[in-house]
Amino acid sequence: MNQKFSPLFKEFKFANGVSLKNRIIMAPMTNFSSHEDGTVSDAEVKYYVRRSQGVSMVITACTYVTPNGKGFPGEFAADRDEMIPSLNKLAIAIKEQGAKAILQIFHGGRECPPELVPNGDTVSASAVASERGGSKEPRALGEEEIQSIIKDFGETTRRAIEAGYDGVEIHGANGYLLQQFFSPHSNRRNDRWGGSLEKRLTFPLAVIDEVKRVVEEHAQQPFIVGYRFSPEEPETPGITMDDTLLLVDALAGKDLDYLHVSVSDFWTAPKRGVEDDRSRIEVINERVGGRVPVIGVGSIYSAEDALKALGTGVPLLALGRELIIDPDWAQKVESGREAEIETKINKDAQDRLVVPDPLWKAIIHSPGWFPGVE
Ligand SMILES: Cc1cc2nc3c(=O)[nH]c(=O)nc-3n(C[C@H](O)[C@H](O)[C@H](O)COP(=O)(O)O)c2cc1C
């Protein structure tokens, strides 16, 4: 290894004692490739096996905790005990390659395509349609339903423990249900779940409490609980950076194992709510002040990019698209071959890269999403 990159391969220890062999993590990425019944497919398992050797931890694609939370065609299920063998198959595949396996647990809320949820009944904090193209107005959840979804996150966590995962990541990012409760765009409630910023935090914090309670009750060994959030929304009203810093304070008080920021570029500066030229991730990491480890992410294509990102003080880095484009990213840096990292998708390399058809089609037909697809 080129010694200058050795900080990327330094062991990392979580406060709960679990250690990671290096600082490179696979970011959660939906792959649209599970079976209709919610079980993981062999193609999907192979895709993970191909990417779990060099990294220290793999965060899976999101999995739905209850049927009305299914957000993607080909999304795998964790909403019932029957799914435990399927979940276990994926956990084993990842862990056998030497990485920790983290299950990303999710409810899509108003972003769920109606055809994927029972009776087309999409739900959210309030009956406000998403501004993302063609979205239908959801139904506002009732008190009992909210309680039931909180329990569903807990039940899915129990299944993750029984299926052999090393932890769960609560998906509070990318505009899905937890974020919908925090956002002033999608949460117009005036009960205990909304009305002020503090009240808009009630649902995400209740999910965390329930997940932690279940871990306390069921896990026989240290079990990682992380939380992912998006720092800003483009809508007005919408989450701004100053709102996010208050969210960060609340999360930092929850005894989580890590916080994971969701952005597509590590270096983007705050747009609204905070005047700062530094990147949103740096501003967040400063606010966290070492209370909990932060995972940074976003367009970290080269070893130099990764070193620079780590230099901001963020202890862990997640790679998403980069590991689809080059599954050997970490091994190449570790063996001094960083110059050989591929940074553009090679359109002829689907088989070599071991990418399932539905994900490959999504990549190839979405100009601008992946480098190499214009
Ligand atoms: C194909 C694909 C699927 C994704 N699915 C998820 C997901 O299920 N959950 C999530 O939190 N983020 C998801 N993301 C976002 C990534 O985790 C990551 O934040 C983003 O791609 C930026 O990092 P990168 O530049 O390393 O790709 C997805 C991204 C891609 C490219």
What does this structure look like?
The radius of gyration is 19 Å and the shape is globular. β1 and β2 form a beta hairpin. The chain has one domain (3-121, 142-173, 198-230, 240-364): Alpha-Beta Barrel (TIM Barrel), CATH 3.20.20. The longest helix is centred in the middle third of the chain and has 20 residues, at 143-162. It has an eight-stranded parallel beta barrel with strand order 3-4-5-8-9-10-11-12, surrounded by six helices. A two-stranded antiparallel sheet has the order 1-2. Strands 6-7 form a two-stranded parallel sheet. With 374 residues, it is α/β, with parallel strands linked by helices. The chain has 13 helices and twelve strands. Bound molecules: flavin mononucleotide. Flavin mononucleotide is lined by residues 27-30, 61-62, 104, 171, 173-174, 228, 262, 264, 297-300, 319-322. Flavin mononucleotide binds at residues 27-30, 61-62, 104, 171, 173-174, 228, 262, 264, 297-300, 319-322.
